[in-house]
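Holo model, zinc ion. Inputs:
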Amino acid sequence: MSKSKGYAAVTAKAPLAPYSFERREPREHDVVIEIRYCGICHSDIHQATDGWSDYQEESIFPMAPGHEITGAVTAVGGKVTKHKVGDKVGVGCFVDSCRTCTECRRGLEQYCTVHTVWTYNGREHDGTPTYGGYSDRIVVDENYVLRMPDNLPLEACAPLLCAGITLYSPLRHWHAGPGKKVAIVGLGGLGHMGVKLAHALGAEVTVLSQSLKKQADGKRLGADHFYATSDAETFTKLKGSFDLVINTVSAQIDWSEYLNLLKVDGTMVVVGLPEKDIPVGAFALTAGRRSLAGSQIGGIGETQEMLDFCSQHGVACDIEVIPIQKVNEAYERVLKSDVRYRFVIDMATL
Ligand SMILES: [Zn+2]
Ligand SMILES: [Zn+2]
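Output:
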């Protein structure tokens, strides 16, 4: 074992503060990564405040969050073939899975039916708690480490590892592309990636945001249309318009209203995670043979495909880089939607 330092919440809702913990010595297939940047995801805040206690078996404290990790390889185990010292690499929301269940074998490790090892607030197969990317380094099996684009800044690519893949996977699965009308609900960290990726995939993109405050931004990111959901007219005007609605909002909004915006056979995919259940009206579904679906990040293969796609199309995140000392302030600002569009911690400040 060797010492690692980072920032952690010692108990639920405690502010993040400097914290030291142990990382394992690299095994044969492990890669040691010096972390340069880590994005701040809304789910870091949900988990550090134990906001998902209704849905999670346990939250593990002290908790060092962070699952949008980019950095450089500083050492590799004897049998590593996929990465070498000096490579620019990334780690997303999970660092291992069972590798043998049907889903793992299909490359859907995020839906592993046995045990997905989450990057933080999780447990390794032997029960050891995991600590995330708000820290100086991390040790990860080579099969769960991604190659980062060479032509894009490492800091702007960190949020691709959660926000990026969270939108890319459903856009691909439900065939967003030329001739398809896609609505992105919410223009935050997730939503802004949805707009960029759906646009790069060739779909006609509409943003549904609370107000028109971010309209200019939405258009710059690639949206063809922009509507305010605070205006009731929007729901009348756009009724039956979309093939695909991706809902990135984690607040309690009325999903039925958004289902009515779908065409016949359209699908609304939920990727935002509200802390309480949301009731859905059956008529909104039956009226147009519509589907309500969910999607959770993406597998390792698809995440690499997304990173390669972003490299090709020059897609990265709009970020605000902060020193780690400002992480608690950044949390407050995320909760007020006061960031365009993702905070990324510069780990050199640790
Ligand atoms: Zn995340
Ligand atoms: Zn599995």
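Residues 7 and 19 are 5 Å apart (CA to CA). Residues 41, 43, 67, 93, 162 surround zinc ion (ligand 1) (CB under 6 Å).
Archived with the compound record.
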